[in-house]
């Protein structure tokens, strides 16, 4: 399994560092057995396998709360389990702060930092209920994403350790003797998931609701109103909101001292690249305003003229099925491109990509499969849409794909939760018609 690694910034464990040194002391007279009995003659049990997770490069980074997996709680979508965990510190007493943290940024590190800024507003009983809240959060996460649930169950009986050197409460701390409460929470959930699997077909799954009931009491919520827990603890879910991704890391990134700052990177550009499908030259016909365009490149180039010169836009659409021809033909008419193109080109790219990936399920699934990886168009010829010759370009195409990926993932969670999600293609077409003059 994964060997232990050290990094200079927490991925998931620092989440409660503001309380990490306030752990309640154990009562010496509580009557509990010592952690390490000194007089047992029974044979020592076989040591359990150990799995350490913490860094992005670790095989089980998905167990951290910083892993990008949108989850639903009480009818709202949180970008990561970290967002929900931090929001729960305020949800009962200061819901406006909780909502601010939920929406402030998609980055879980930002959610952590914002919660820290409002430390004086954290609910007074947080130290007592924080483990219940963690159980609630990871219950949502692993039940709403089947590939994560399967990965957790695949760990067998292994001990799970958050290998954070900065958190001796949720992680194991610098000296490796921390409480590892996140790892323990994951092991509890793993056991519960297996019990639920074993109870399929029986009258019901009761044990799976225990943590939910305790959490609801702590939060003073009506269980009937708690949409997430009712759905996700009443039985075993089978939702796929994304698949484990494959990627190649940037050369040298694995050994760099600041590798914690880097997400896995997927480069695409050439036909032989595994994700050439992400380019606009990939042959995937798409429909826009009732017309078929051979590729997303054809649509994107046509949009430069569609408002002011629809005949020219139609010429580009029909002149050739080769996207290179559409590109070259457009550049012949540069003097007729709509005057505000530089201001709206990113929005036009969003439209073209949305059509492409929503109208082709295999492309949508491939995009979702990339997880949290950074998507980079590895074009040496384009420093705006790609990363340019020196690798320092703006990579706007990659960023547009990441925006779309997040939206698609949100929609998967909403559909699973039973919400009616209107066809985004219909929504997009209506908005296009309404705003066409403006666009």
Instruction: Please give the number of β-strands.
Output: 8
Q: Assess the beta-strand content as a share of residues.
A: 5-15%
Helix content: 40-55%
In CATH terms, what is the architecture of the largest domain?
Orthogonal Bundle
Instruction: Predict the CATH topology of the largest domain.
Output: Tetracycline Repressor, domain 2
CATH superfamily of the largest domain: YbiA-like
Please list the strands of the largest sheet in the order they lie side by side. Answer: 1-4
CATH class of the largest domain: Mainly Alpha
User: What is the number of domains?
Assistant: 2
Mean pLDDT metric: 78
The coarse silhouette is: elongated
| Uncertain spans | 1-41, 205-261
Helices, by number, come to 16
> What is the CA-atom radius of gyration, in angstroms?
25 Å
Distance between the termini: 53 Å
Class by SSE composition: mainly alpha
Written as H for each helix and E for each strand, in order along the chain, the element string is HEEEHHHHHEHHHEEEHHHHHEHH
Largest sheet: 2 strands, parallel
What does this molecule look like?
The chain is mainly alpha-helical and 439 residues long. The chain has 2 domains: 50-200, Tetracycline Repressor, domain 2, CATH 1.10.357.40; 265-437, Tetracycline Repressor, domain 2 (Orthogonal Bundle), CATH 1.10.357. It is built from 16 helices and 8 strands. β2 and β3 form a beta hairpin. The chain starts with 16 loop residues before the first helix and ends with a helix. InterPro entries: NADAR, YbiA-like_sf. Residues 25-48, 197-220 are annotated as: Disordered. This is NADAR domain-containing protein.
